[in-house]
Amino acid sequence: MEEMDRDEIITLDYGSGGLKTSRLIQSVLVPALRNPALEELGDGAVLENRGSPLVFSTDSFVVSPWRFPGGDIGKLAVCGTVNDICMAGGEPLYLSLACIIEEGFSMEDFRQVVRSIGETARLAGVQVVTGDTKVVERGKGDGLYINTSGVGFRRKECASPGFSPRAMRPGDDVIVSGTVGCHGAAVMMARGDLPCQGPLRSDCMPLHRLSAAVLQAGAGGVRLMRDPTRGGVATTLNEFVEGTPLSIELEEDIPVEPAVEAACELLGLDPLYCACEGRLLAVCAHESTPAVLEALRSTEGGEKAAVIGRVTEERPGRVVLRTALGGSRILEKLAGAQLPRIC
Amino acid sequence: MEEMDRDEIITLDYGSGGLKTSRLIQSVLVPALRNPALEELGDGAVLENRGSPLVFSTDSFVVSPWRFPGGDIGKLAVCGTVNDICMAGGEPLYLSLACIIEEGFSMEDFRQVVRSIGETARLAGVQVVTGDTKVVERGKGDGLYINTSGVGFRRKECASPGFSPRAMRPGDDVIVSGTVGCHGAAVMMARGDLPCQGPLRSDCMPLHRLSAAVLQAGAGGVRLMRDPTRGGVATTLNEFVEGTPLSIELEEDIPVEPAVEAACELLGLDPLYCACEGRLLAVCAHESTPAVLEALRSTEGGEKAAVIGRVTEERPGRVVLRTALGGSRILEKLAGAQLPRIC
Question: Taking the model in full, what pTM does it have?
Answer without folding.
Answer: 0.95
